[in-house]
């Protein structure tokens, strides 16, 4: 849709602003209170930091990588939920429980969508993911604002002290360093393809147009990649074409492949396969389209026209035969 990209950009901006404001509010409360209330703010601050860390990570690692979800996304989600449920909401209004459930659901649903999308090799639902992430961040923002308002109305603040923030920042930096050192290496090579709306239903012999986008941010020099396009029918390759593309950090291009003349009607699969010359890196992605019946309309029109002409000729012959029979009857029995 034409408004999807502006909506995604706007939602990303809103997410960043709300996370920054939330982090500031919780940090201020962490500095102003002591003992149990400070511990509550510390736990909530961990929730905000984990949410912000995941939002930032999405810009550097493609969400289509299954190993990234297994080793990074899912552990972060579990950590966020664990810290969120460590916050004691016993003496707080019931709305806090509702907000917490909304945050948890909005956090789990995108992960499920990503895993299903990877399993089915479907197109990434960027608009839906952006909407769900905005709901999650907005729910967290409302939770933080109501949390701070509740304690400000119930408890008097102590003297402002930055020492807890320094201690927390040191611990957070150490934790992040340990995470990056222990986390498995995940390549950021990304391949996406999209079939144009005008090519979702074709006929045998037509050209299948599609967009291919390659992102390779860690690549430091221009490299030639082998690109192969395949059309599959019931798992069998019915058409194939190989090209060479030069890529540095990213590339986007429009290409096409011809649907074979003998392609039967039904769903077909476009497979895009990319690899380097040394075969150290490879990636493939698929998309589906429909091949309609290739029946020749002109032939159908000709058959219909021929049948109509034959019918007219038959009617004329029958009419002539009836006229001749009538004339013979009149000659045989003159008045």
UniProtKB/TrEMBL annotation:
<keyword id="KW-0812">Transmembrane</keyword>
<feature type="transmembrane region" description="Helical">
    <location>
        <begin position="98"/>
        <end position="118"/>
    </location>
</feature>
<keyword id="KW-1133">Transmembrane helix</keyword>
<keyword id="KW-0472">Membrane</keyword>
<feature type="transmembrane region" description="Helical">
    <location>
        <begin position="68"/>
        <end position="86"/>
    </location>
</feature>
<protein>
    <submittedName>
        <fullName>Uncharacterized protein</fullName>
    </submittedName>
</protein>
<feature type="transmembrane region" description="Helical">
    <location>
        <begin position="168"/>
        <end position="191"/>
    </location>
</feature>
<feature type="transmembrane region" description="Helical">
    <location>
        <begin position="13"/>
        <end position="32"/>
    </location>
</feature>
<feature type="transmembrane region" description="Helical">
    <location>
        <begin position="44"/>
        <end position="62"/>
    </location>
</feature>
<feature type="transmembrane region" description="Helical">
    <location>
        <begin position="298"/>
        <end position="318"/>
    </location>
</feature>
